[in-house]
From TrEMBL:
<feature type="binding site">
    <location>
        <position position="276"/>
    </location>
    <ligand>
        <name>Zn(2+)</name>
    </ligand>
</feature>
<dbReference type="Pfam" id="PF02574">
    <property type="entry name" value="S-methyl_trans"/>
</dbReference>
<keyword id="KW-0862">Zinc</keyword>
<dbReference type="GO" id="GO:0008168">
    <property type="term" value="F:methyltransferase activity"/>
</dbReference>
<keyword id="KW-0479">Metal-binding</keyword>
<feature type="domain" description="Hcy-binding">
    <location>
        <begin position="2"/>
        <end position="290"/>
    </location>
</feature>
<dbReference type="InterPro" id="IPR036589">
    <property type="entry name" value="HCY_dom_sf"/>
</dbReference>
<keyword id="KW-0489">Methyltransferase</keyword>
<dbReference type="GO" id="GO:0032259">
    <property type="term" value="P:methylation"/>
</dbReference>
<feature type="binding site">
    <location>
        <position position="212"/>
    </location>
    <ligand>
        <name>Zn(2+)</name>
    </ligand>
</feature>
<dbReference type="InterPro" id="IPR051486">
    <property type="entry name" value="Hcy_S-methyltransferase"/>
</dbReference>
<dbReference type="InterPro" id="IPR003726">
    <property type="entry name" value="HCY_dom"/>
</dbReference>
<protein>
    <submittedName>
        <fullName>Homocysteine S-methyltransferase</fullName>
        <ecNumber>2.1.1.10</ecNumber>
    </submittedName>
</protein>
<keyword id="KW-0808">Transferase</keyword>
<feature type="binding site">
    <location>
        <position position="275"/>
    </location>
    <ligand>
        <name>Zn(2+)</name>
    </ligand>
</feature>
C-alpha cells in the first residue's frame, strides 16, 4: 500500500495526468525559456490551475506540479515560495474538481535545470553527494506545501537515482522514482534492471517505473521493475513522436494508443499516465481503457 494514497500493487489502476507543459503550450504560452512551465508560476498561475483542472476532468487522479525545472539557482530568493506555489495551485485544482485525487510534487533531474537536454544524457560530472545537496533544498521547499507525493521523475542514470533517494531521507513525504530510458537501458546507458535494483529496497519509495520514454519501451520496463522490486509500478511515457530539426516540430503520428494500456496493466503497471505531448484527450482515453479493463 502506498502510504496516504490508497495505491497498492495490483489494486485498482491509478490514472496519472499528461504533459502539463504541452497543455500550457497548446493554450498559447511560450515556454521556450529556461524555466519552462515553471515561468507561469510567477506570471500566470491561474493558467496552471486551469491546466491541472482539465486533466482532472479528463479522468486523471494525480496532478504533477509545475516544479520540474524549478530550482534555487533559477528563481533566486523567490525559489522556495514558487515551489510551494506549484503544489498549492495543484491543490486548488483538486478542490475545484473534488473526489479522490492526489498531488505529486515534481522533482526533475539536475539536467532539467540546465535547459539543454542534459536530462536525456545524465552523467553530469557531479558526485552523488553534490547531486544530493542540489536536490534536498528543493524537496524541503515542496514538502512544506504538503503534497501527497514527491515525483522523482525523468531520472537519467543510477547516480542521480542514488542522490534522490538519499535526499528524501527524513522529508516525510512518500515518493515515486521513474527513469527516462531508451530501450532496456537508462539514458546514460546502464542496464535498466540494475537501475531498478538500486531503488528496490528504499522504504521511502512507494512506486518505481519509467517516464518520458517511447511507448514501445514501457512493457519490457514494467517486467524488469516487477522482477527487481516488490513495489507498485508507475509508467507515463511520451507520445513517441520524432523531432524534425529542420521543421522544428514533432512529427506524428503519436504511438501512445489505447491498445497499449491493457498490455501495460497485464504486465503489471499500477499507475498509468503520460508525459510530453500527452493531452487531456489522451488521458481521457487512458481513463476509459482502465475503466473498461476493470469492468
Amino acid at each position: 500500500m502506498v502510504p496516504g494514497t490508497g495505491v497498492s500493487a495490483r489494486g485498482p489502476v491509478i490514472v496519472l495526468d499528461g504533459g502539463l507543459a504541452t497543455e500550457l503550450q497548446a493554450r498559447g504560452h511560450d515556454l521556450s525559456g529556461p524555466l519552462w512551465s515553471a515561468r507561469l508560476l510567477a506570471d500566470e498561475p491561474e493558467e496552471i490551475v486551469s491546466a491541472h483542472e482539465t486533466f482532472f476532468r479528463a479522468g486523471a487522479e494525480v496532478a504533477t506540479t509545475a516544479s520540474y525545472q524549478a530550482s534555487f539557482e533559477a528563481f533566486g530568493e523567490n525559489a522556495a515560495a514558487m515551489m510551494r506555489r506549484s503544489v498549492e495551485l495543484a491543490q486548488v485544482a483538486r478542490e475545484r474538481v473534488g473526489g479522490r485525487r492526489w498531488v505529486a510534487a515534481s522533482v526533475g533531474p539536475y539536467g532539467a535545470t540546465l535547459a539543454d537536454g542534459s536530462e536525456y544524457r545524465g552523467r553530469y560530472g557531479l558526485s552523488v553527494a553534490e547531486l544530493t545537496r542540489f536536490h534536498r533544498p528543493r524537496m524541503e521547499a515542496l514538502a512544506e506545501a504538503g503534497p501527497d507525493l514527491l515525483a522523482l521523475e525523468t531520472v537519467p542514470d543510477i547516480d542521480e537515482a542514488a542522490a534522490l533517494l538519499a535526499a528524501i531521507e527524513g522529508i516525510g513525504i512518500p515518493a515515486w522514482l521513474s527513469y527516462t530510458i531508451s530501450g532496456d537501458r537508462t539514458r546514460a546507458g546502464q542496464p535498466l534492471g540494475e537501475a531498478f535494483a538500486v531503488a528496490a529496497d528504499h522504504p521511502g519509495l512507494v512506486a518505481l517505473g519509467v517516464n518520458c520514454c517511447a511507448p514501445g519501451d514501457v512493457e519490457p520496463a514494467i517486467r524488469l521493475a516487477r522482477r527487481a522490486a516488490r513495489k507498485p509500478v508507475i509508467v507515463y511515457p511520451n507520445s513517441g513522436e520524432e523531432w524534425d530539426a529542420t521543421r522544428r516540430a514533432w512529427t506524428p503520428p503519436s504511438r501512445f494508443t489505447a491498445e497499449l494500456v491493457p498490455r501495460w496493466i497485464r504486465a503489471g503497471a499500477d499507475l498509468v499516465g503520460g508525459c510530453c505531448r500527452i493531452r487531456p484527450a489522451d488521458i481521457a482515453m487512458v481513463r476509459r481503457t482502465v475503466d473498461s479493463y476493470a469492468a
